[in-house]
Predict the 3D structure of the following.
Amino acid sequence: MRKLASLNEEVETWTGLTGRVADAQILLDLAVADEDEAMAGDIAGEVETIEAELERLEFWLLLSGPYDKDDAILAIHAGAGGTEAQDWTEMLLRMYLRWAEGRGYQTSILDSMAGEEAGLKRAIVSVEGDHVYGYLKAEKGVHRLVRLSPFDAAHRRHTSFALVEVWPDIGEEIEVDINADDLQIDTFRSSGPGGQHMQKTSSAVRITHLPTGIIATCQNERSQAQNRETAMKILRARLFDLEQEKQEAEQVRLKGKHVEAGWGNQIRSYVLHPYKMVKDLRTGYETGNAEAVLNGGLDAFIETYLRSMVGVGTI
């Protein structure tokens, strides 16, 4: 019923726009026949409005993948760079939380692990809202930061990396076959904030999927049952994403195209010294306003990437 309502809304939107174009054409014919310049001016304004709406709808067509309308699970992992990378991971988490807040999305930190000195070793966030996965899938990959290190006594320039993963939050809509015998479930005491109760009881849960080696953990909920449920949610999403990657890899193999993937292929560089610039290495889009990007100003990067993937052009 949700899918049907969504499709009906899309059809009504396009039908409504078609009707506005037809009405504008009729008014234009009348204005030309009556030589009414005032009416022609009003029609010109309506045409501009229609063009803006058409451009918005054309972009929404880029978010028409099978899971683009779904919520998403976002994971950030510190890479090479030690404390620097862990601090960078926390900066990225803040960036995505602010981006989500700006779009009116709901977020919840499902799991996190603090670094030894500062920052985070990892963070996993649930993001809920309209077309969240469609947008956030553009952020998959390695993000590189170049800056003067606040953790270096000599204040030297450091380069650090963090990996961003994004999976559609499929919920219960799609069946993912998980054999209970393939799961190793461990409990341990929470290492993060959350009060005395969480730190004194073994409420945190780690689930290992033995056939694939995928590990899902959660320690941010109050009870072990809640943490287990959330960890299973993360595991389901990761197993689903793994299956999708296998299918895509097979399609690529059949097409004969080789695609490199891994840590060496950063998708975006954030330079804070000796100059300030954020550049997406996939599209070439860049801006000198690094502060705005780190405060959640990601829309231009995301939209440019999505447009480039289908050859629509850039904004």
